[in-house]
Model the fold of this input.
Amino acid sequence: MKKVVKYVAFDILRNKIVIAYMLFLFVFSMGLFLMEEVPEKSLMSLLTLNLILVPLISVMFSTIYIYNSSEFIELLAAQPIRRKSLWLSFFIGLASALAIAFFIGCGIPILLFSANSVGITMIITGLLLSVIFVSVSMFSSVYIKDKTKGIGVALLIWLYFSLLFDGVVLFVLFQLLEYPLEKLIIGLSILNPIDLVRIISLLKMDVSALMGATSAVFKQSFAGNIGSIISFVVLLLWMVLPLYFSVRKFDKKDL
Amino acid sequence: MIQFSNINKQFDQFKVLNNIELQFEEGNIIALIGPNACGKTTLIKTLLGMVIPDSGEIFYQGKSIKNDWNYRNYIGYMPQIGKYPENMTVGQVIGMIEDLRNVAHKDLDRELYESYKLKDILYKRMGALSGGTRQKVSAYLAFLFHPQVLVLDEPTAGLDPLSALILREKIIKEKQKGKIILITSHILSELDDIVNQIVYMEEGKIIFNKPLAQVKADTGKEKLTEAIAAIMNVDKRG
Done:
C-alpha cells in the first residue's frame, strides 16, 4: 500500500495544478496579511476565501484526478494488490497532497502573522475541509461511471454546500420566523461541513454578533468545550463516512 | 488448475455470462473463441478479479479467489487494449510494476525486453505510443514475473507479423514449462497450430469445450479457422 501511495503522490506532484493552487493560496494570504494592519481583519477575509476555494479545489481536483486515473486504477487492479488498499492509497495520496498544499499556502502565512488560537483553528478546519471534500468526491466518483456526469455532479455538490444549502436554510428561517428555531438551525448546520467550519471560526473570532438573532444560541451550543468537541466529531464523520461507503462500493465495482 | 463454477454476470438487463462451467489444466493452451460481445473479455476479467460475478465462484488451485488477491501473483495478464497512465514513460510503468510485485531483479523474465527492443522506447511517454507498441509493453509485462497462468486477450491483434511470431515462439516455450495459457481471439490464424483446447462461447454461454483434434474431426476441416467458421455458420442457419 505504501508503494501505491508513493506512485499516486508522485503522479499528483507532476500535475502542476496542486502546485499552482498552493502558490495562489500563499500569494493571496501573504498579500492579505501585508496589506492589512490588523491581522484579525485579514483572517476574516481569508476565511471567506477559504470557505469557497478550498472545497471547490478539493472536490473538483480529486474528481477529475480519479476519472483521469481510470487507466492507472485498472492497471493496478490487475496486480496483486488488495482492492481496498488501492482505493485508500488514492485517498491518502489526494488528501495529503491537498492538505499539504493548504498548509504551505495558507497555514504558514497564518502562523507567521497570527499564530493564536483563532489562526490555529482556521488551519485545522481548513485541513479538515480539504480532506472532507476529497472524501466526498471519492464517494460520488465511485458511483458515477461517466466522467462528464461525474464532474458535473462534483460541481453541483460544491454549489449545494456553499450556496444552495444556505439559501434553503434562510428560506426555512424566513417562513417560520415566529417559531423558536434555534435548535433546528443547529441541527441543520451539522448537515453542511462548510457551515460548521464557518460557525466554529466565527465563534473563535468572537464576531458572532455578526451572525444575527441566533448567535446567542450558537454561542451556547458551539463555543463551549463540549460544543467544539461535538463539531469536530461531526467534521470527522464527514471525512470518514463518505470514504467508508466509497471503499465498500469500490471493493465490488466492475472495472 | 482453474475452475469456473456456475458463474453468472449481468450488466443492466443484459446477461453477459450465463452459468459458466469450465476447467483448465496445467500444460494447455486454451483458445477462448466466439463472436464479438460474446463475453470472452468479461470472463477473463472475472478471473482477474476486475469484474465481480453476480453468483458462482472461481477456484485457483482449489482455493476460491473471492476476497483474495494473492492469487494474482501467479497470473500474467495482457489486456486487449493496454491502458496505461498517459504521462508516464515506458520505463516508469515497467519500473512501477516491478516495484509493486516485489520480485528480485534476477528472477524476472526479460526475454521479450530484448526481442522487442524495448530499450529504445524506455523514455517515450505511454500516451505517445502506437497501439502495437503498447501491445509489446503489455506482452512484456505479462511474461515478466514467470506467472503460472497467462491470460492473453487478443494478443496478436495490434502486432506486426514479426512481433506476432516472436510472441508465438514465447507462448510455445512457456507451454512446455507446464503453464496454463488462456488466449482469447477472433482471428486465430497465427496461433492456429499451437492451441490444443478450444472453448467456444456465444451470447454468454459455453457452446463447447473440446480438444482441438476433436473439433477438427467433428467439422471435418483441417484448419482451425475453417472449423470455427463452419461452426459459426451452422449456428446462424440453425
Q: What stands out?
A: Residues 2-251 of chain A form one domain.
